[in-house]
C-alpha cells in the first residue's frame, strides 16, 4: 500500500460503521507489526531450505576443486545405497505411522470413554506430551536397558524362556521404539476429534434403527476420517524425520536417509560429500512435499462436507 | 411469561416464502396411532431419584407435553420411552407390547434432540433418508421419501446442503423430517426449540403442531417453557422431583391447578394474603367464593391470575402503580399494596394510559371463585 | 515368570484401573467396556515396562539394589556443564519465542485476521519439515562466512553465533522448531479469552496499546504463555538432531557420548529427565486446572 492510500483508508474508516473500524483501519501499521515474524521465518526457515535447493545442484570437481552447476548429486542420491535408504525410511515411516495411528486411536477412545477417569485422562495426556515431544534420546536408552543386548527383559526372556532372535538394533526394533513416541503423538492429536463426536449422533442413529456397525460405517467413521488422516500424516512426517532415536540405537548400520545425511556431512573422505548431504536433505523435503500433496488430495475427497 | 396468546404472531418464516405446505405422505397419515403407557418407572442415579414411581398414560395420537424445572426427570422419562434409559423398576408399554427391554433401534420411535443431532457428513437429504438407508431400502425410494418429507417441513430446496449451511431452525426442521421418515409409532421431542431464537421458536412450534395433527402421531414433547407446553399440547404433565404433579388439558392446568407448585409454575399467579371464612374467602376488601374444596378456616393466600384483577385510578386508593409494561392489547401493571404486597395485573391497554407509575389505584378481584392455599403450607 | 514381571504387570493393571468406563450418567450400553480394558492393559504394559526396566537396569548390581548411579549424576563429568548449557539455551529460546510470537498472535487476532491463514501455514511448516533438512540448510548458510564474507563484520557475527560455550545459532533454530507449539498454545489462549472484547473495553476506557498489552493481554494469556514456555523448554532439553549436526555439545548429545563408557549413567539420566519432565507438566496442568476452577472466566 502506498503512503498516499493511508489517508484514503482512514477517511473511509471514519465513515464506516463502528463495528468494522478495527478491521478497515488495519492497513499499514499493524501489517508492519507482523514484519518481525515474517523476517524471522524468511531468514531462519525459508532461506536455509532455499539454499538447500540451490546448493544441491553444485558439484565439486575432485581434481580441480572447482564448483560448478551439476545434477550429479541428484543422480547419486536417486540410485544405489542412497535410494535404498529412502526406501527404508519410507517403509519404516509408513509402517510406524499406520500402527501408531491405529493404536493411538484405540488408546484415545479408551481414555475418552472413561468418563470417571479425569485423573487418568490428565495422566495420559501429560505423559503423551512428554513422550511425543521430548522423546528421542531418553527413549532410545530406556529401550536399550529393556530389550537391548544387556537389557533387563532380554535377559529375562533368554534366561527363563530360552527365547531370542529379536534384535532391538534392526528395523523391527526401530518400529517398537518409534511407536513409543508415535502412539502418544497420535493420542495428543486425535483426542480433540474423538471428543467432538457428539453422543446425539449415536443416539439419533440408534433411534433410526441403525446398529453399532452401521453407525461407524455411515457416521462415526466418515466424521473421524479427516482428522485421523491428518494425524497419520503428521506421524508419518515425524517418523520420516526421526534421527536421534535411530542414531542412538543403531549408529549408522541401517539404511535410513537421516543417518545417511549425517554420515555424508561428517565424511572427510569423499570430496563434495557436503553437497551430497544437501541433495539427500532436499530429497527428504521433496518427499514430504509429495506426501503433503497426496494428503491434501485425499483430504479434499473425504471432507467435502466441511467446506 | 404468560400463557396468553403471544401478540403479533409472525406468519411468514422468511420473506418471499409461501406459508402453504405440502400434505404429509399418505402412508404416514394412515398409521394407526399407538398409545404409550409408563408404569411405576423408577430410575436412580447415584443418590438422586430421577424418576420415582412415575406413571403416565398417553393416548394414541395424543400430543402430550412434559413440563417441569430442570432436573425434574422429564428428560429421563422421555429417554426411557426411547430406550436410552433402562429403568431400575417399572415397565414401558406401546399399546400391548412391553418394550421395557427393547433397545432403541428396535422400538420404532422418532426422536428430535435439543440441537446438533444432524450427521455433519451427510447432506440434508441423506440425513432424512438415513433411517431407510440402514433398513436397506433402494436409492430411488430413499430419495423420494426424503423429498416428500423435506417438502413437508418446507425445505424442499435445501436437500443438497450440508447441516452447517443451515440456520438453527432449519436444522431442527430437518431433524423432524428425519425422525418422521421411518414412519415411527411414537414421536419424541426433547426440548427441540430451546436452542432457537424467540421468533423462530414460535414458528417451529406451530409447525410441529400442524404436522402432528396432520399425521395423528402419538407425540411426547419435553420442555421447561410453560408457554410452549400450553400452546401446543393436548395435555400437559407437570413434573417435579421425578413425579407427576398434575396431568391435564392446558385450560384446566391454567384455571384449576391441582397444587401450589403447578399454580406457581404455570403462568403468573399472584399470592394475596386472605382470610378463609365459612365457604368463602376475603381478600383485597371483598369476599369471593372458594374454588374447589375449601380448606379449614383461618389465614390463607388467594391465588389470582393477573387478568383476574381490575385496576382503577382512585385518589383515595391504597395501591400505587410501580411499573407499567405495554404489550399490545393488554398492559401489565405492577401495583404495590399496603403491608409490602405487590401484585401483577393485566388490564386492557385501551383506557389504561392514565395508570402511570405513581398513580394511586384500587385493585379489585374479578367476580369469580378464587383458588385458595392455606397459609401453613407455603412451599 | 519371576517376581519382577509380576510386579510390573500389576503396576500396569493398577495404572489402568481408572479406565472403568461404566458411569451412572450413561448406562445404556452394557458389557461393552471389555475392549477398553484390553487396550489400556496392553498399551499400559508397553509403556510402563521400558520405564520400569530402565530403573531396574540402573539400580541393580552384584550386591543387590543401590541408587549409586543416581547419586553420582550431579558430579558426573560433563553433566553440570552440558545440562546448564541446555537450560540456558532453553531459557533463551523461550524468551525469544515469546518476544516474537506473543505480539504476532495478538496482532493477528485483533487487527489482521485476514493474515491468519498465512501465519498458520508458516508455523505449520516446521512441524512437517524434517529438522535434519533444515539444519543441513543452516549449515550451508553458516559456511558462507569463511567462503564469501571472510574478513567482514558479517562473518564475525556468524562466528560469534557459533561460540561453543553458548551457541546462539541453536537458539535461533530452536525458535523455528518451537514455532508450531508456541503458536498453537498462544492461539488457543487468545481465542478462548475473547481478547477482542477485552481489549476494546480497555481501549474505550482510555488505555494505550502498550498498556493494554501489559495489563490486559499478558495476564489473560498467562496460562498459554506458561504452556508454550514449557513445551519449548522440553523441546530444547531433548533436542539432539540440530546440535549433533552442527557439532555442538548439549545435554542430549552428552548422554549419547557417555553411553558407550557409562551405559548405566546414560540410562539413569534419560529416565530421570523423562520422569522429571512429566512431573513438571503434571504440575503445570494441575495448577492450570485449579486456576480455572477458581476463576471460571
From TrEMBL, chain A:
Transmembrane segments: 28-54, 92-112, 124-148, 168-194, 223-246, 279-298
Keyword Flavoprotein among UniProt keywords: no
Domain ABC transmembrane type-1: 86-297
Annotated InterPro entries: MetI-like (IPR000515), MetI-like_sf (IPR035906)
PROSITE patterns associated with the record: ABC_TM1 (PS50928)
Compartment(s) where it occurs, according to its Swiss-Prot or TrEMBL record: Cell membrane
GO cellular component, one term: plasma membrane
Keywords for the protein's UniProt record, in alphabetical order: Cell membrane, Membrane, Transmembrane, Transmembrane helix, Transport
One GO biological process term: transmembrane transport
Membrane topology designation: Multi-pass membrane protein
Family according to the record: Belongs to the binding-protein-dependent transport system permease family. CysTW subfamily.
PANTHER family reported in the protein's UniProt record: INNER MEMBRANE ABC TRANSPORTER PERMEASE PROTEIN YDCU-RELATED (PTHR42929:SF1), INNER MEMBRANE ABC TRANSPORTER PERMEASE PROTEIN YDCU-RELATED-RELATED (PTHR42929)
Protein name: Putative spermidine/putrescine transport system permease protein
Source species: Geodermatophilus aquaeductus
UniProtKB/TrEMBL annotation, chain B:
Residue span of region Disordered: 1-26, 348-379
InterPro entries listed in its UniProt record: AAA+_ATPase (IPR003593), ABC_SmlMolc_Importer (IPR050093), ABC_transporter-like_ATP-bd (IPR003439), ABC_transporter-like_CS (IPR017871), Mo/tungstate-bd_C_term_dom (IPR008995), P-loop_NTPase (IPR027417), Transp-assoc_OB_typ2 (IPR013611)
GO terms for MF: ABC-type quaternary ammonium compound transporting activity; ATP binding; ATP hydrolysis activity
EC numbers for this chain: 7.6.2.9
Biased composition (Polar residues): 350-362
Annotated GO CC locations: ATP-binding cassette (ABC) transporter complex
Pfam assignment, any one: TOBE_2
PROSITE patterns per the UniProt record, alphabetical: ABC_TRANSPORTER_1, ABC_TRANSPORTER_2
UniProt keyword S-adenosyl-L-methionine, yes or no: no
Gene3D superfamilies named in the record: P-loop containing nucleotide triphosphate hydrolases
Domain ABC transporter: 36-266
Top-rank taxon: Bacteria
Biased composition (Low complexity): 17-26
Keywords from the UniProt entry: ATP-binding, Nucleotide-binding, Transport
SMART domains associated with the record: AAA
The name this protein goes by in its record: ABC-type quaternary amine transporter
TrEMBL record, chain C:
UniProt keyword annotation of Endoplasmic reticulum present: no
Membrane topology (UniProt): Multi-pass membrane protein
Transmembrane region(s): 34-57, 87-110, 122-145, 165-186, 225-247, 267-287
Pfam families the record matches: BPD_transp_1
Spans annotated as Disordered: 1-28
GO biological process, one term: transmembrane transport
Positions with biased composition (Low complexity): 1-19
SUPFAM superfamilies attached to this UniProt entry: MetI-like
Subcellular location: Cell inner membrane; Cell membrane
PANTHER family in the record: INNER MEMBRANE ABC TRANSPORTER PERMEASE PROTEIN YDCV
Assigned protein family: Belongs to the binding-protein-dependent transport system permease family.
Protein's name in the database: Putative spermidine/putrescine transport system permease protein
Amino acid at each position: 500500500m502506498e503512503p498516499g492510500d493511508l489517508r484514503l483508508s482512514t477517511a473511509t474508516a471514519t465513515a464506516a460503521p463502528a463495528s468494522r473500524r478495527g478491521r478497515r483501519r488495519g492497513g499499514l501499521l499493524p501489517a508492519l507489526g507482523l514484519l518481525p515474524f515474517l523476517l524471522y521465518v524468511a531468514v531462519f526457515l525459508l532461506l536455509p531450505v532455499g539454499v538447500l535447493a540451490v546448493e544441491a545442484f553444485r558439484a565439486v570437481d575432485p581434481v580441480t576443486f572447482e564448483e560448478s552447476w551439476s545434477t550429479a548429486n541428484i543422480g547419486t542420491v536417486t540410485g544405489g545405497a542412497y535410494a535404498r535408504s529412502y526406501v527404508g525410511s519410507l517403509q519404516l515411516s509408513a509402517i510406524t505411522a499406520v500402527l501408531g495411528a491405529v493404536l493411538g486411536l484405540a488408546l484415545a477412545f479408551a481414555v475418552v470413554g472413561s468418563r470417571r477417569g479425569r485423573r487418568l485422562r490428565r495422566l495420559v495426556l501429560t505423559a503423551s506430551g512428554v513422550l511425543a515431544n521430548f522423546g528421542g534420546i531418553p527413549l532410545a536408552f530406556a529401550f536399550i536397558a529393556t530389550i537391548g543386548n544387556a537389557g533387563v527383559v532380554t535377559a529375562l526372556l533368554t534366561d527363563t524362556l530360552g527365547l531370542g532372535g529379536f534384535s532391538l538394533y534392526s528395523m523391527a526394533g526401530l518400529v517398537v521404539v518409534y511407536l513409543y513416541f508415535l502412539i502418544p503423538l497420535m493420542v495428543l492429536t486425535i483426542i480433540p476429534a474423538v471428543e467432538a463426536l457428539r453422543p446425539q449422533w449415536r443416539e439419533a442413529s440408534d433411534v433410526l434403527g441403525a446398529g453399532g456397525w452401521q453407525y461407524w460405517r455411515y457416521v462415526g467413521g466418515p466424521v473421524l476420517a479427516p482428522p485421523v488422516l491428518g494425524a497419520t500424516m503428521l506421524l508419518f512426517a515425524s517418523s520420516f524425520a526421526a534421527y536421534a532415536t535411530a542414531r542412538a540405537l543403531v549408529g549408522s548400520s541401517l539404511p535410513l536417509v537421516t543417518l545417511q545425511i549425517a554420515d555424508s556431512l561428517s565424511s572427510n573422505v569423499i570430496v563434495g560429500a557436503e553437497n551430497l548431504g544437501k541433495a539427500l536433505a532436499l530429497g527428504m523435503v521433496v518427499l514430504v512435499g509429495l506426501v503433503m500433496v497426496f494428503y491434501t488430495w485425499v483430504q479434499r475427497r473425504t471432507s467435502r462436507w466441511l467446506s | 411469561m404468560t400463557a396468553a396468546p403471544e401478540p403479533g404472531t409472525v406468519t411468514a418464516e422468511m420473506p418471499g416464502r409461501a406459508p402453504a405446505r405440502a400434505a404429509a405422505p399418505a402412508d404416514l397419515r394412515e398409521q394407526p396411532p399407538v398409545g404409550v403407557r409408563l408404569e411405576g418407572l423408577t430410575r436412580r442415579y447415584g443418590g438422586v431419584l430421577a424418576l420415582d414411581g412415575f406413571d403416565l398414560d398417553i393416548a394414541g395420537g395424543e400430543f402430550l407435553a412434559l413440563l417441569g424445572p430442570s432436573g425434574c426427570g422429564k428428560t429421563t422419562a422421555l429417554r426411557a420411552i426411547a430406550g436410552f434409559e433402562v429403568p431400575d423398576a417399572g415397565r414401558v408399554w406401546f399399546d400391548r407390547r412391553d418394550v421395557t427391554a427393547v433397545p432403541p433401534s428396535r422400538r420404532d420411535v422418532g426422536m428430535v434432540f435439543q440441537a446438533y443431532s444432524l450427521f455433519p457428513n451427510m447432506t440434508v437429504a441423506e440425513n432424512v433418508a438415513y433411517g431407510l438407508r440402514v433398513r436397506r431400502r433402494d436409492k430411488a425410494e430413499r430419495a423420494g421419501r426424503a423429498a416428500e418429507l423435506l417438502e413437508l417441513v418446507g425445505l424442499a430446496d435445501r436437500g443438497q446442503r450440508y447441516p452447517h449451511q443451515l440456520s438453527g431452525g432449519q436444522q431442527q426442521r430437518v431433524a423432524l423430517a428425519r425422525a418422521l421418515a421411518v414412519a415411527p409409532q411414537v414421536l419424541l421431542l426433547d426440548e427441540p426449540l430451546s436452542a432457537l431464537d424467540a421468533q423462530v421458536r414460535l414458528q417451529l412450534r406451530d409447525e410441529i403442531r400442524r404436522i402432528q395433527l396432520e399425521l395423528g402421531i402419538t407425540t411426547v414433547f419435553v420442555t421447561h417453557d410453560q408457554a410452549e407446553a400450553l400452546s401446543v399440547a393436548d395435555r400437559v404433565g407437570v413434573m417435579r422431583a421425578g413425579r407427576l404433579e398434575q396431568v391435564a388439558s392446558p385450560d384446566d392446568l391454567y384455571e384449576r391447578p391441582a397444587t401450589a407448585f403447578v399454580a406457581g409454575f404455570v403462568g403468573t399467579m399472584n399470592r394475596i394474603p386472605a382470610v378463609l371464612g365459612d365457604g368463602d374467602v376475603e381478600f383485597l376488601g371483598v369476599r369471593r367464593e372458594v374454588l374447589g374444596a375449601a380448606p379449614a378456616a383461618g389465614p390463607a393466600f388467594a391465588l389470582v391470575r393477573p387478568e383476574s384483577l381490575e385496576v382503577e385510578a382512585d385518589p383515595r386508593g391504597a395501591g400505587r402503580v410501580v411499573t407499567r409494561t405495554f404489550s399490545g392489547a393488554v398492559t401489565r401493571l405492577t401495583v404495590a399494596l399496603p403491608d409490602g404486597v405487590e401484585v401483577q395485573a393485566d388490564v386492557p391497554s385501551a383506557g389504561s394510559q392514565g395508570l402511570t407509575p405513581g398513580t394511586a389505584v384500587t385493585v379489585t378481584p374479578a367476580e369469580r371463585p378464587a383458588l385458595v392455599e392455606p397459609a401453613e403450607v407455603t412451599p | 515368570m519371576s517376581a519382577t514381571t509380576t510386579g510390573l504387570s500389576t503396576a500396569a493393571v493398577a495404572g489402568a484401573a481408572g479406565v472403568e468406563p461404566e458411569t451412572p450418567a450413561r448406562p445404556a450400553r452394557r458389557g461393552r467396556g471389555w475392549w477398553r480394558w484390553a487396550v489400556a492393559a496392553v498399551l499400559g504394559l508397553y509403556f510402563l515396562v521400558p520405564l520400569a526396566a530402565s530403573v531396574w537396569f540402573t539400580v541393580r548390581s552384584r550386591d543387590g539394589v543401590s541408587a549409586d548411579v543416581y547419586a553420582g549424576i550431579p558430579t558426573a563429568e560433563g553433566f553440570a556443564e552440558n545440562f546448564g548449557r541446555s537450560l540456558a539455551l532453553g531459557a533463551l529460546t523461550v524468551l525469544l519465542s515469546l518476544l516474537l510470537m506473543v505480539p504476532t498472535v495478538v496482532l493477528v487476532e485483533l487487527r489482521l485476521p485476514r493474515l491468519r491463514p498465512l501465519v498458520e501455514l508458516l508455523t505449520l511448516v516446521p512441524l512437517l519439515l524434517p529438522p535434519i533438512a533444515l539444519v543441513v540448510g543452516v549449515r550451508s548458510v553458516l559456511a558462507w562466512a569463511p567462503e564469501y564474507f571472510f574478513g567482514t563484520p558479517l562473518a564475525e557475527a556468524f562466528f560469534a553465533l557459533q561460540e561453543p560455550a553458548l551457541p546462539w545459532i541453536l537458539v535461533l533454530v530452536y525458535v523455528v522448531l518451537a514455532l508450531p507449539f508456541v503458536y498453537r498454545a498462544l492461539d488457543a489462549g487468545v481465542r478462548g479469552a475473547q481478547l477482542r472484547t477485552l481489549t476494546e473495553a480497555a481501549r474505550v476506557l482510555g488505555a494505550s496499546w502498550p498498556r493494554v498489552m501489559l495489563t490486559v493481554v499478558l495476564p489473560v494469556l498467562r496460562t498459554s504463555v506458561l504452556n508454550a514456555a514449557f513445551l519449548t523448554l522440553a523441546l530444547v532439553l531433548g533436542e539432539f538432531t540440530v546440535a549433533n549436526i552442527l557439532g555442538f555439545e548439549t545435554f542430549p548429545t552428552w548422554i549419547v557420548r557417555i553411553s558407550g563408557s557409562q551405559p548405566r549413567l546414560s540410562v539413569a539420566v534419560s529416565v530421570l529427565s523423562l520422569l522429571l519432565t512429566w512431573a513438571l507438566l503434571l504440575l503445570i496442568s494441575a495448577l492450570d486446572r485449579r486456576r480455572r476452577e477458581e476463576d471460571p472466566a
